[in-house]
Specification:
Elements: H1 25-41, E1 45-46, E2 52-54, H2 55-61, H3 67-72, E3 75-77, E4 83-86, H4 91-100, E5 110-119, E6 131-140, H5 145-162, E7 168-173, H6 180-191, H7 200-208, H8 219-224, H9 237-252, E8 258-259, E9 271-278, E10 287-293, H10 297-300, E11 308-314, H11 315-325, E12 328-332, E13 338-342, H12 345-360, E14 365-367, H13 374-384, E15 388-392, H14 394-399, E16 401-406, E17 412-416, H15 420-426, E18 435-438
Parallel strand pairs: 1-5, 7-8, 13-14, 13-15
Antiparallel strand pairs: 2-4, 3-4, 5-6, 6-11, 7-9, 9-10, 10-11, 12-18, 15-16, 16-17
Helix pairs in contact: 1-5, 5-9
């Protein structure tokens, strides 16, 4: 082939690929449908933002010292001389849109969700792609720990609905600008004599953004920092009370969690609550979602001080987990309910009109366009999974009837040509009413 998809980006196909069945568009649609349904139950509304933003939005919000900004962003200069970046995460664009469009006001609690493509130029591997899809939810305008619990509960409910029931919630508090400086001093003092044991990346983080050292996945860094000072030991009273209240809410909701003192996530805008959801099915790339509170982000993006919290969930990783579990989310059928097998010119002319009538009445239909034999058309109908076949040839045209064949049990009967669409409706062959698969 002359052309191929860009490295670590993929095509999502109309049929399940043999090697990666999760790259089947119907499975993606099922995940998106379930996410939308779950968000609706929680009172969230959809927002869509551009695929690119001004680069400064991300450098200011995510932080210059993060790997995302320093190494992973797709940044370019547009024809107007502006520095633009393909979005490397979903929250900052949502906050920008909320400010720009006047969605935030006194006493407003904004509950939003999005489904968006995310771009990061990182070392690609299975489960770690340079273009991936993310479903996310944000609540802007409320600082109550109960909101944190609701956001986490929404994510857990979504996993349950798609069939991931063994995921583990990891939880931490990353403090705030009041209590983090003291932890930073202690962390620097602990890490400095151990720098020689750490990766080059962590030595750079030591200089630029010490907290990011805890986000390293390098085994050498993890070993060197194993007994480092914990943020939880430096929390101010407000952060400590918030974290304790959140844990109480999660317990009342029967949401199990594990405290992880080294969980800091990859963005500088997080304050107080930070969480991740991991799956044992994925090995090293086991994080299938995560998020946290960002009480300073709206202000840093040009708005008034406004609290917020949200999460992002990787669609690809969820689908991979389901594949490992042998589960397929309930997908809407994409196969026609009715296939028209027409033999002869007059029959084909009738089939063209009948196809229009069937579709106008909500019946998913298709016909043969290759002039094949009846036997070949029946094979084609079986291959695409049609439930009913309408057979019309010269004999049927002369008698004004069509032969209907039920592909499930092989039974046949005849109906008048002008009643085919009506009968198909009565038999329940209506598009959108079938759903294949299941958890």
């Amino acid at each position: 082939m002359k052309y191929a998809a860009p490295p670590y980006m993929h095509d999502v196909l109309p049929f399940p690929p043999e090697k990666e069945p999760w790259l089947h568009a119907a499975r993606w649609q099922a995940i998106e449908r379930i996410f939308r349904e779950t968000c609706r139950l929680y009172g969230y509304r959809e927002i869509r933002t551009p695929v690119m933003e001004a680069t400064e939005l991300f450098t200011r919000s995510i932080g210059d010292g993060t790997d995302i900004v320093s190494k992973e962003m797709f940044t370019f200069t547009d024809r107007g001389g502006r520095s633009m970046t393909l979005r490397p995460e979903g929250t900052a664009p949502v906050v920008r849109a909320a400010i720009e469009n006047g969605l935030l006001g006194d006493g407003t609690v904004l509950k939003l969700y999005y489904i968006a493509t995310i771009y990061r130029y990182e070392h690609g591997q299975r489960g770690r792609y340079r273009e991936h899809q993310q479903t996310g939810a944000e609540v802007i305008g409320a600082s109550d720990p109960a909101v944190d619990a609701e956001v986490i509960g929404l994510a857990i409910e979504f996993y349950r609905r798609i069939g991931i029931t063994d995921a583990e919630l990891r939880l931490n508090s990353v403090g705030c600008p009041i209590c983090r400086p003291e932890h930073r001093k202690a962390l620097l003092a602990f890490a400095e004599p151990r720098l020689a044991q750490m990766s080059a990346d962590n030595r750079r983080r030591f200089e630029q953004n010490p907290l990011r050292m805890l986000d390293s996945k390098d085994p050498k860094d993890k070993a060197a920092l194993e007994d480092c000072p914990r943020l939880s030991d430096f929390l101010c009273s407000d952060c400590a009370d918030h974290f304790e209240a959140l844990q109480g809410h999660l317990a009342r909701l029967n949401i199990r969690f594990t405290l992880d003192a080294n969980l800091v996530r990859g963005f500088d805008y997080y304050t107080k609550t930070a969480f991740e959801v991991v799956s044992p099915q994925l090995g090293a790339q086991n994080v299938i979602g995560g998020g946290g509170r960002y009480d300073g982000l709206v202000e840093s993006c040009g708005g008034r001080p406004t609290p917020g919290i949200g999460f992002g969930i990787g669609t690809e990783r969820c689908l991979m987990v389901l594949e490992e579990l042998g589960r397929v989310p309930g997908i809407d059928s994409e196969t026609p309910d009715v296939f028209l097998a027409a033999l002869g010119q007059h029959a084909r002319e009738w089939a063209v009109r009948a196809l229009r009538d069937l579709r106008s009445n909500g019946v998913a239909s298709d016909m043969d366009y290759l002039g094949r034999s009846l036997k070949a058309q029946m094979r084609a109908a079986g291959k695409i999974g049609a439930r009913q076949v309408v057979i019309v040839g010269d004999d049927e045209m002369d008698r004004g009837v069509a032969t209907l064949k039920n592909m499930d049990d092989g039974t046949q009967d005849e109906v008048p040509l002008d009643r085919v669409a009506e009968v198909m409706q009565q038999r329940g062959a209506i598009s959108g009413q079938r759903r294949d698969g299941g958890g």
